[in-house]
Amino acid sequence: MDASSMPAPCGPDTFTNRTVIVSGGTGKLGRVICRALAEGGANVVVNDINAEATANLVEELVSDGRSAYGITLSAVNGSEIISQTVSKFGRVDAVVNPILGAIPWKHFENLTDDDFRASFEANVLAPISIAKAAWPHFKAQNYGRIVNFTSDGMLGFPTASTYTFSKGALFGVNKTLAMEGAPFNIKVNCVSPIAYAPTMERHIQRFSEDVQELFKTRYKPEGNVPMILALASEGCKISGEVFNTSGWAVGKSVWGVLEGDNQMRTVEECLLKMDQVTTKNTKEVYEPGSMVDFTEFQSNWILGKDSKSKS
Ligand SMILES: NC(=O)c1ccc[n+]([C@@H]2O[C@H](COP(=O)([O-])OP(=O)(O)OC[C@H]3O[C@@H](n4cnc5c(N)ncnc54)[C@H](O)[C@@H]3O)[C@@H](O)[C@H]2O)c1
């Protein structure tokens, strides 16, 4: 499947009168997201630490007759980015954050505290900073969309601790902001995309040949764009979900809980029953929608009640 033969991800008016900030806007995914939003009628704010790439992308979009503005700042400067955006376009409607801090590629014991700080700053504090600064605007207008970027790397990826730890943190960011945003029509979701680049060549060697081919031919940056734009659009009615996107396919990532054993009173019993507790068997995985849901589930099965019933 060739990206150039695919239909445009949205109509030319889907984002008319909407201002969307794309932080990490000049990266592999950021670039195609900025272009698609601009072609969908949005005022696009390209935010990135790469000054030259930001200026070039903005010039490219503006010379194509699109509405774009560049802000070269780390996205941890959320207040300044929102303030410049509102001065330029009068409002902010959505923030999309395909940010990626540099990955040191070292084993855990060789990483420094500064390696972790840098990664958490780019991958977690930056999207939080932008969301926090945008929040009062979203509340005042009873409208806002946030799309953060996690990674299947959070499922475990040796030598990528700084990346996987920080990407895992976004799972919690997503759930809590979705709940706090619910009364104000602020929808917060996360994507876990795949966009092939030659730098992944070594990483994909572990897969079968047909999967390697899939990476190279179908896992284009563009193959994630329709869902990302859907989540950033007015039409988006869901919140707090994590979607895995790749090659124009979309799935949902879940965090689930299983009933265990409610009589584990000694270390010996715990050790003996560990396999039983961790084996899925025929038990149904329950996906709590919130901390309250989880606590009800846990309490109900300990009490011997139907764990899916509300107490
Ligand atoms: N490419 C993939 O296959 C893949 C897989 C899983 C997850 N993701 C996620 O998707 C997102 C985009 O990935 P990508 O491949 O386009 O990455 P990329 O490295 O091509 O782009 C990331 C961009 O973020 C910018 N950036 C870094 N720190 C910043 C900061 N503090 N403030 C503003 N901008 C900053 C960089 O300059 C760069 O332009 C990332 O969050 C990544 O974790 C990508």
Describe this structure in words.
This protein is of the alpha/beta class and 311 residues long. The protein has two domains: 3-253, Rossmann fold (3-Layer(aba) Sandwich), CATH 3.40.50; 256-311. Helices cover 42% and strands 14% of the residues. The protein is built from ten helices and eight strands. The chain has helices at 28-39, 51-63, 78-89, 113-141, 161-181, 201-204, 209-217, 225-232, 267-278, 291-302; strands at residues 19-23, 43-47, 67-71, 94-97, 144-149, 186-193, 242-246, 249-253. It has an eight-stranded mixed sheet with strand order 3-2-1-4-5-6-7-8, with helices on both faces. The longest helix has 29 residues, at 113-141. The N and C termini lie far apart (50 Å). The mean pLDDT is 94. Nicotinamide-adenine-dinucleotide (NAD) is lined by residues 23-24, 26-30, 47-50, 74-76, 98-101, 122, 126, 149, 151, 192-195.
Q: Terminal Cα separation, in Å?
A: 50 Å
Count of the domains: 2
What's the CATH class label of the largest domain? Alpha Beta
List the ions, cofactors and other small molecules found in this model. Answer: nicotinamide-adenine-dinucleotide
In DSSP terms (H or I, runs of 4 or more residues), the helix count works out at 10
Q: Return Rg in Å.
A: 21 Å
Structural class: alpha/beta
Helix content: 40-55%
